[in-house]
Design goal:
- By secondary structure, the chain is α+β, with helices and mostly antiparallel strands.
- It contains 14 helices and 19 strands.
- α1 (3-12) runs antiparallel to α2 (22-42), α5 runs antiparallel to α9 (249-256) and α10 (279-291) runs antiparallel to α14.
- It is elongated, with a radius of gyration of 24 Å.
- The relative contact order is 0.09.
Length: 436
């Protein structure tokens, strides 16, 4: 579902007590516009909670726009990511929601210090930003702005809000964030921290997440963002932004665990379990770095970013789209022999020797299924290890079509596209940090 579809649902599915007034309708529409502007302005994408955050606990600023007439929750029925979430201590009314936001602003400002102020745009939780002319603002790289936002989620056993899901490594549209690591805070509490990683193409924005699972199962999240207003930045600028963000790690870890965060945790429930980040998640993260910023890693799945430059290089389908999942794993020597055989109808592997002397085997092929009319293809790199196992990095390509396409030029275009990935797949399988 894209942003516009979510905004349409947001406008059309308001739950109002008492019945909607003209002012309420205007407020919800304005909230939709602000949501789109916020997404476009800060591009805080891929967090897994970016849009759900707004919907999960209501949008208290809408009730202020509505003159306090009782707007309670805006939600899209039937979507598990946007079902009504009443917060932790029952559904808050407009006054309570605004009081919670004010309290959480106080927590953030106490932690970050006098250089920070409440943002004029409070969409997406309690939001603070550096004061103009302050040391915090003046030490940001030129052209950069920053913000920190706090939200509280009632996880309610929902897997998409579990630490296992939100703590996985992420890469999307230039934003690159590591998987969570344990970070100690006050009173023996542990914060899950996912920090920014320098993008190989120098992204103009960086994001860090701080998560704290409370005793009743609720989850407190702080998102910390530094972003340039330019479309492109240098690697040096990006690194300076990341170093600037590092200065606030301890303060934000204290804030996310602060007992003053509202709504308060209930006495009953169970603390969200610590995330289990598998070695494979780390391998996919490093493979994404080898493939480049056109490739998205989210919730343990790696694939081509739709409508980005490399996607547009694929042959055009009249009715359908391309799917290009990628993976890196260990296979047996017998599976490698079967894949790389020169039997009739198979595409044999080619041996390549890298600069460090590693021997890698590659193969790329594409074809059209005569029965379904769909196009399929693959690009793969194999590294035979000392123990006899084989590390395989591969991209599979296939079309999803409404009607058959019969065009031999499609196959030729696919082969060219897949062959161009070989150098990056070789880089992935020869990365010594990948475990397979």
């Amino acid at each position: 579902m894209n942003d516009d579809q979510i905004i349409t649902k947001l406008r059309g599915a308001a739950v109002d007590v008492p019945p909607a007034t003209a002012a309420t309708v205007t407020a919800v529409a304005a909230g939709g516009h602000r949501l789109r502007r916020r997404r476009q302005a800060t591009q805080i994408l891929g967090s897994g909670l970016a849009i759900a955050a707004v919907l999960a606990v209501g949008i208290p600023t809408l009730s202020a726009l509505d003159g306090g007439e009782g707007l309670n929750t805006v939600t899209a029925a039937g979507d598990p990511m946007t079902k009504p979430q009443p917060g932790v201590n029952g559904a808050p009314g407009a006054g309570e929601a605004l009081a919670n936001e004010k309290a959480n602003l106080g927590v953030l400002l106490k932690a970050l210090g006098p250089d920070w102020r409440a943002s004029d745009d409070q969409v997406g939780g309690a939001v603070v930003e550096p004061r103009a002319g302050s040391t915090a603002a003046d030490t940001l790289p030129d052209g950069y702005a920053a913000r920190a936002s706090m939200m509280v989620f009632n996880t309610d056993g929902r897997s998409e809000l579990s630490l296992d899901t939100v703590c996985k490594p992420l890469a999307e549209k230039g934003l690159v964030r590591s998987g969570c690591t344990d970070m100690p805070a006050a009173d023996g509490k542990t914060v899950q921290y996912a920090g920014p990683v320098g993008d190989q193409a120098a992204s103009p924005w960086s994001s860090a997440m701080y998560y704290f699972g409370r005793s009743d199962g609720s989850l407190v999240r702080i998102e910390f963002v530094a972003r340039s207003n330019a479309d492109e930045v240098s690697a040096g600028q990006e690194q300076r932004a990341i170093e600037w963000m590092e200065r606030y790690k301890s303060a934000l870890a204290e804030a996310v665990t602060d007992d003053g965060v509202m709504p308060r945790a209930l006495a009953t429930g169970s603390t969200p379990t610590a995330p289990r980040i598998a070695d494979h998640d780390g391998d996919l993260f490093r493979m994404q770095q080898a493939l480049g910023r056109n490739w998205t890693l989210y919730d343990g799945k790696l694939g081509l970013e739709p409508n980005w430059p490399e996607y547009k290089e694929l042959p055009e389908l009249p009715h359908g789209y391309w799917d290009a999942p990628a993976d890196i794993t260990t296979i047996s020597k017998s599976a490698f022999d079967a894949a790389c055989s020169a039997d009739a109808g198979a595409t044999p592997c080619e041996k390549r020797t890298t600069k460090d002397g590693s021997e890698v085997y590659v193969r790329s092929w594409a074809d059209r299924d005569a029965t379904s009319g769909e196009y399929v293809g693959e690009s793969a790199a194999y590294l035979i290890r000392e123990d006899g196992s084989v590390l395989l990095a591969e991209v599979k390509l296939h079309s999803v079509q409404e009607t058959k396409v019969e065009d031999s030029d499609q196959v030729a275009g696919m082969r060219t596209w897949l062959t161009n990935l070989q150098a990056r797949l070789i880089k992935a399988v020869t990365d010594p940090a990948i475990t397979g």
